[in-house]
Design a protein that fits this description.
CATH superfamily of the largest domain: Vaccinia Virus protein VP39
Number of strands: 14
Radius of gyration: 18 Å
CATH architecture of the largest domain: 3-Layer(aba) Sandwich
Number of domains: 2
Helix content: 25-40%
Order of helices and strands: EHEEHEHEEEHEHEHEEHHEHEE
Number of helices: 9
Strand order of the largest sheet: 10-9-8-11-12-14-13
CATH topology of the largest domain: Rossmann fold
Oligomer: single chain
């Protein structure tokens, strides 16, 4: 039986919470909830590293740790999960919620320890910038697909082929369930930790984290061509200059960026 750790961390501000989430997501923490002055962070038992956690906290001691059995995870997570509506463009709801009208795309995304419900600022930002993009007959790579939400949205927006890549078996399983729930037919899911062997795409979506984007920048660039779009998020506003520099060196030019809280997303074009 797979087990998860729920880490409850005492926080003093939303800014502190955002910084902790950024660091924890780089260490395979999957999901986060804010409750009053506490941040709940979830990680699988095999990915939990208490020493690394203490290093992230820099001596901060206000946290507790609880074990959650796999069978109890969805019940806990879903109990507080509400739909997310982004502009009039997209509604994201779990399967047990009724359909949402007056949006262009009503997506069914029921998460199972996968990052990408629309509740987190980075997913929200990615979707806001996706609204600007013409996906008609485009080929898409969704790197770090998580729940599959961005690949699913790309198909709904008219893309011709989507490849969702994620290193985690749990995420791929969850993404496949969401693909089927949304009646998508053009999404291929691949369990791997990099982009080796992935075909060149018209649009690359990468909502991961700072370290992965830095480490995989060469491979990300290798699957693009002149005119390809690259949309990235998963990092703080304070990291935007570094991220912009990394991809400008690979032949990309920034088109637009958006911010929400302490997070940012950037849309690039390959020239």
């Amino acid at each position: 039986m797979k087990k998860f750790f729920k880490i409850q961390i005492e926080i003093n501000s939303s800014e502190e919470s955002d910084i902790l989430i950024a660091h924890l997501s780089e260490n395979n923490y999957y999901a986060f909830e804010e409750e009053n002055n506490w941040l709940n962070a979830y990680v699988t038992e095999e990915d939990f590293d208490e020493q690394k956690l203490k290093e992230i906290f820099h001596g901060k001691t206000g946290f507790t740790k609880n074990i959650i059995e796999e069978e109890n995870w969805n019940q806990q997570w879903e109990s507080g999960l509400q739909p997310v509506v982004i502009n009039n463009f997209v509604a994201i709801r779990p399967s047990f919620h009724e359909a949402i009208n007056n949006v262009t795309h009503d997506l069914i995304i029921t998460p199972k320890m996968s990052f990408g419900t629309g509740h987190h600022a980075t997913t929200h930002l990615m979707i806001e910038l996706m609204e600007m993009i013409d996906f008609t007959n485009k080929t898409i790579v969704d790197f770090g697909t998580g729940t599959g939400v961005l690949a699913i949205l790309a198909e709904k927006c008219g893309a011709s082929k989507m490849v969702g890549v994620d290193y985690d078996e749990w995420s791929i399983k969850n993404a496949q369930e969401n693909v089927e729930a949304n009646n998508c037919q053009k999404i291929i899911l691949k369990q791997q930790g990099n982009l080796l062997g992935i075909d060149v795409a018209d649009i690359v979506l990468a909502n991961i984290n700072l370290n992965v984007l830095k480490n995989e920048a060469v491979l990300i660039s290798s699957i693009t061509k002149t005119g390809s779009l690259l949309l990235v998020s998963g990092f703080l506003i304070s990291d935007e200059t570094e991220m912009k520099s990394i991809f400008e060196e690979k032949g990309f030019v920034k088109i637009k960026s958006k911010q929400l809280g302490d997070w940012t997303a950037i849309l690039f074009e390959k020239y």
